[in-house]
Amino acid sequence: MLERLAALKAETLIFTDASNRAAVEAQARAIVIPAKLSRKSTRPEELYTPIPYIIPAQIFAATLAEWKGIDPDAPRTLSKVTRTL
After folding, report:
1. Taking CA 67 as the corner, what is the angle to CA 56 and CA 5, rounded to the nearest 5 degrees?
2. Model confidence, pTM
């Protein structure tokens, strides 16, 4: 995914935890959550482990979009086609 975004010249920032060193080393800009969060979905409670990543990323994206004066709901490389039958 990072390679594809780089090809689009997209600015990227990774939100990850301390156990994901490979992602941090591959990406110059990363925010590391100071906890080790499980990546396996074998137990029902692990279903919620992405939440600590999602909320800070959404707040960051909304703030950055506002600062840049762009519409986060209309990305330049996303198109939606809806067919009504």
Report:
1. 65
2. 0.53
Half-sphere exposure of 62 (CA within 13 A, CB side): 6
Q: Can you give the pLDDT of all 85 residues of the chain as single tens digits?
A: 877 887 888 888 888 877 777 877 877 788 887 766 655 556 666 666 777 778 888 888 889 889 999 887 777 777 766 767 7
- How is residue 74 annotated by DSSP? S
Beta strand ranges found along the chain (DSSP E): 14-17, 30-33
Token pair for residue 38? 């499980």
By the 8 A CB rule, do 40 and 59 touch? no
